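ERR on first pass: missing label on line 2. Operator R.T. fixed the label and resubmitted. Corrected input:
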Amino acid sequence: MSIGWAAFTPWSALAGGALIGLAAALFALVNGRVAGISGLLGSLLQPQGEGRDEKMALLLGLLLAPLLWATFAALPPVHFGTGSLGLIAAGLLVGIGTRYGSGCTSGHGVCGVSRLSPRSLVATLCFMAAGFATVFVLRHLLRG
Amino acid sequence: MARLSAFACGVLFGLGLLLAGMADPAKVLAFLDLAGDWDPSLALVMAGAVGVAALPLNLAPRRARALLGGAMQLPTRRDLDARLITGNLLFGVGWGIAGICPGPALAILLTGHWQAALFVAAMLAGMLIFTALEGRRGR
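pass 2 clean. output:
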């Protein structure tokens, strides 16, 4: 393993993480809910359910955040290294997997790990391990 | 009021993702690439988020009601099951293919990249497939 120091951005990573943690903390204390994006999205796709307007409001804020950012500063770059087929396969896996696994990076990785929930700790280990393994296979085994 | 607070949380969340670099799939993949030029930044994103959220998220379940008066809707399950594990393994494979998870997918949806729209459409389709399979199972 070698560390790519040139790409390492410790301060913006910590500060951005702190904002994410603040959002999760406020949503739990003020609204009494978990800021898990896949859970919120998935529950809005079901025909009925409670709290739809609050869930929709959080997702709307998330969607509009880059527009607010762009009024003050240039948006950070977004690079995709994946073609259409890869994006479709990845999207399907993320959609199905997060619903079967009851959460994603935000619900399990941030909120659940913060509470030391055993389910979320196991979930986070699983998606991290699968992510590391997948990148290893795609970048190093298949592309040699 | 609850809607306004939820909206503000969403904006904060999105700004945090953008600032952290999580909205750039290439940066996420550089974190997941342990055998390449590893970029450890995302470990610090997690550390920053958990560091800020740990105390409030552990206090929240002790409250009877949320600050705005609504019922607490925090998860209480503690059991491990096969669905949790297979679901998260599948999610991790998808995350490793494209470097995009649900939060960043939404945070970059309106930035004008067709790739983000395609990913979100496939992700919503995946969630609908889950709902359809569950509906069949429940009948």
